[in-house]
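User: Reviewer 2 asked us to show a designed sequence for the structure in our supplementary figure. I'm pasting the structure tokens here. Could you produce the per-position amino acids so we can include them in the response letter?
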């Protein structure tokens, strides 16, 4: 399940956390929020960012 969570501290500092996205699709999904909230000051990438999307195709044997 894909989720985007926005956390706002008592001081007004905001943080966006994404879950369930593979590779850089998390950046694409949260881009509109980053633009609305202002300048990015830091970024911490998770292991999901380094995963690749695999598209498997069934093997077919010749007859």
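Assistant: Here is a per-position design you can include in the supplement:
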């Amino acid at each position: 399940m894909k989720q985007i969570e926005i956390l706002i501290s008592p001081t007004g500092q905001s943080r966006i956390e994404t879950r369930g996205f593979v590779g850089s699709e998390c950046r694409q999904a949260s881009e509109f929020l980053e633009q609305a909230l202002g300048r990015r000051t830091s970024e911490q990438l998770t292991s999901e960012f380094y995963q690749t999307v695999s598209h498997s195709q069934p093997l077919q044997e010749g007859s």
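For the response letter, you might also mention the following. The chain has one helix and two strands. Residues 3-39 form one domain.
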